[in-house]
Input
Amino acid sequence: MRHEFTMPGYTKIEGDSLYTHDLECAVEIEPDEGTGDADWYIARCFIEHRARHGLEWRKLSKSHALFDTITRWALDEYTPQIEALWEDYLDDKPKLRARAKEVA
Output
């Protein structure tokens, strides 16, 4: 389940962090096995970049500095949209929906 969004990009210039560009980002969520699949977590982050043949999405490793930044931004700004993806996922899984209600 994937949510794509734009977030501001900043560049440090002489110690100041200045807004200089937008980043096209995406996060993918998966069921959280730690909750018996009753909840979700952000499993993957992507950033769109310009390649020789045009724009393409690149998966960021969890150790990449932008992974945490994008994850925090997604959770701060887009939790309702991401939760809607989760709800759509649960529509096809009544047992998981029941478990999710128990956990909540």
Q: What stands out?
A: The chain is about 35% helix and 45% strand. The first strand starts at residue 2 and ends at 13. Strands lie at 2-13, 16-31, 40-51, 54-60.
